[in-house]
Amino acid sequence: MGSGHPGVGPGGSGGRAAPGWAGLGRPGVCGRCLPPASLRAPFAWELAGLREGRGGREGRRVPASSRHEKSPAGSGKGPSSPASRISPRPAKGPPAPAPQPLGGPGGGGFPAGGYCGAGRACGGAAPAARPGPSAPCLPEAAWRRGKPAEASARPPRAGMSGRRPPGPAPAPLRGTADSSAASKRSAAARGYTRDPFAARLLPAAGRPRRAPAVHRGYYVRAEAVGRCVRAFLEGTEGRARRQVLSLGAGLDALFFRLKSRGLLARAVVFEVDFPDVSRRKAALIAGTDELAAWAGERRRQQQQQQPGAVSFATEDYRLLGVDLSDLPRLEKALHGAGLDPKAPTLLLAEVVLTYMDVERSDALLQWAATHFSQAWGILYEQIHPGDPFGRVMQNHFSRLNSQLRSLDRYPDCEAQRTRFLQRGWERCCIMDMNAFYGRFISTEEKQRIQALEPFDEFEEWHLKCSHYFILVASKGEELTPTSVFPGVEDKAVHTCAAPCFAGSLAVEVCATDVGVAGLRRYGHRSVLVAPGVVLTTGGFGDHDGRHCRLTVLHALIKHEDAWRSGNVCLAETGEVWDGRLFHTVTLVKAGWAVVLGGRKSPVSPAVEGYRLRLREADSPPGCPVVELTRLLLAEDLALCRWRHTATEVAYQGEAYLFVYGGCHGPRQSVLPDWCFLHLENFCCRQIPVEGSLPVGRHSHSACGWAGGVLIAGGLDATEQPLGTVLFLRPMETGFQWCPVETSPPLVPRYSHTAHVHREKLLLVGGVWFHAPAVPGVAVIDLATGATAEYCIDTALLEWPLMLHNHSSIFLAEEEEVLLIGGGGNCFSFGSHFNWHPVRLALGALVRGC
């Protein structure tokens, strides 16, 4: 409900794009690497991603200074390292000072360096606030030392030392009102929220359509905040007077929604924001007949007593322009506007306090607890700055010169709860948005949301929800938060018990040459197509400084103890790679692999299957020749799926691919079925399968073992991670589904990879609901079911390692895993692609040492 900030919550930056930042081509199309007829159909919400600056959705040129690609030797161009654009790893001991980005020519007060993470344009809303192309915001050497470089001298910013003189909002915060309003309007127009007033407070020129993940983010935010506000108003309905005080309200239509629903009897809504934002909102209300009618007749203001503080006032609505960091002036302005400290009062702050100096925001919370005799405090903000997603999130706001100042001191739900209790609030309940969505959104409502538009951003959605929280604190015996979250005690609520790690594994950067740009991708598949040759296909990533669906195949070729990048040459068969992602590539024999399924967009499945053959005899050194042949599949519909698995099995002496699970159709239907694809005539055959039918899933793992298939994890139709392990056991008459009991139970996860070695199932990476912990390697003893979780120590890496949507190759001789690619769209904070292949030595684990 607050204007927040560019990229805050599900929103992003607003305004017009700077020259040279417009997206190129159609959704996901890279003009350099796709055939002319490959991907012609525009996809509405992906096109909208272009307008809102979601560089991960469109082919987009990345400025040379921001590309994640080292310049060739002798080019005269310096390397661009991800270390210069990613937040440093939190140091042990006392927290380091917040990074201070250097200023640059981006304009509007934004720092230099126009892209975060892997070069995607930051700001998930509109391109206006995106900085222009310039040097990275921090020198590479500074991040290597674990601390920022000294910033040039500048006047103190708001929330730092000194008091900001009266005037307009700081440049990085001015565009947030439009951005937030545009996202709310887009979510309402698509049917996520019921907000008929959202469009009234947004100029016609600023109404872009947002991407589905942004819609969902604003939906869950609106549901959580709306639930709290309604509970307060319903609980105080019999009082002679009650008050709602919205801090950093921006262009939100909270007052109009509440009044139109008849919830403001004997209630007054106070909204506070920077003076220029409040004056603009007052002009919009006065100039819109519908809004003016709902607001009612304006009251005369005593401008001599409060010059400039009250921008708009009616009987039950007061709009004030005051800097929240100036507490004495804020208190004086609210008193002059009629705020009654004895009346039950709800204070609402959505991604507002985090931009203030911590001492000032703490003082504001303590003032509220002592000033009001009965009050609720509602807070919606970010948490978990130290994990990979949190580091990208922090870097995004640092580049915008708008650091999340409270995160270092209050990094998780427990710390935020303690913050309130130590400042005079008597009760406090807090949970992250995954917990809220799972507990308090009904099954019917979830199904309604899922049916609104195509959606295939599950990792992004769950990671975003794990990094935001809703908090309800209360003071006064008659006001308790139990009515907001029935059945939840006065505490921090966790989605589920935190995992217990048995140890850690050190990760090492894989020794390669400089040409690894082709492996900065996600949603791809890699296969050890021949000894010492890893072939990577498809996915979404960085091609020549442009983000697009990739049609260029990539090879890693082992030479002595290092891996070298090889240019893959396609044999002249008339076929080219079509830019699919979330497909499967299954090795059926040395040099041969089968490609099935995948998608080009959530409404455009990849129908054709392919056979990949490495023509070693025709391959010059360092340049493997690959033959791509289209398969004539007899059952196209059964194989039109993505996020599925395909594993080779044998039945009655004949070879099949067991194709299981996945998504299908524009509504992302989760498939509970499977098929056995005969590997000679490529038709599906009926083979008996006994046992209980498993729940449908996608984004799971599958690998062959003992003549059958091991299925682990995945995401079910309700978008909940699964912790089950299944074995498709071979029998004389067919196959049988058998559960694999694990002890302790496997922590639910999805978007991971899996391998079997020495009778142990190894699950690598993935997404779960346990931030800030991230999945490392789970080891399951297939003889006993004993399960152990190991975290991955990334101390040697200078960039966040995101192990989802990645691929992995198990090298049996070395007993190590080669991790390739991975990452994704980090909500509105930019895309992140893992910078370099890395390897994990697993010998000690699989040998039981």
Estimated structural class: alpha+beta
Q: How big is the Rg? A: 28 Å
* Helix run count: 17
How many strand units?
A: 48
Described by the principal axes of the CA atoms, the overall outline is elongated
Helix content class: 10-25%
Q: Biggest sheet: strands side by side, in what order?
A: 7-8-6-5-9-10-12-11-13
Uncertain stretches of 5 or more adjacent residues: 1-166, 302-307
| Beta-strand proportion | 25-35%
Characterize the biggest β-sheet. Answer: 9 strands, mixed
End-to-end distance, in Å? 54 Å
What integer is the average pLDDT? 79
Structure description:
The chain is an alpha+beta fold and 849 residues long. 19% of the residues lie in helices and 27% in strands. The chain has 17 helices and 48 strands. Strand 7 and strand 8 form a beta hairpin. Helix 7 crosses helix 8. The protein is elongated, with a radius of gyration of 28 Å.
